Fold:
Amino acid sequence: METLSSTVWMIDRRTGRDGVRGELTLGLDRLIFRPDEDARWHTAIPLEEIRRAHRVLGSPVLEILLSRTEEPRVVGFYFVEPPSLAVPVRPRLGKRRSAKRAAIVELMGSNPDKKPEIKKWVRRIDDARSGRR
Structure:
């Protein structure tokens, strides 16, 4: 079976909203994220610690739910650059909501192109976890 690899942005509690760009690869027994720049974000998630892998409905995001007790328990892999949630320096009433709405629209717009790729990731992770490589 071919190696599965994609360019993604990893986002969890540690990375903040902008995430970290890098390469996601499915290894024999783990999901591996190699950052483009800062090596401290290198992440290897053992398959036995993955409780669930799924595509977030209507978005180009692969969400991994982990069973381990330490943080983070949820890791998101964005298959497009995460949209900015920045609001003006002096936010007016409703500007934060407008920024979130614009980000959602941007993500949904890129979803059709990435949906098959993310579904393939979910299928391959599920197969690897059940030993059906």
User: Anything to note?
Assistant: Residues 95-129 form the longest helix (35 residues).
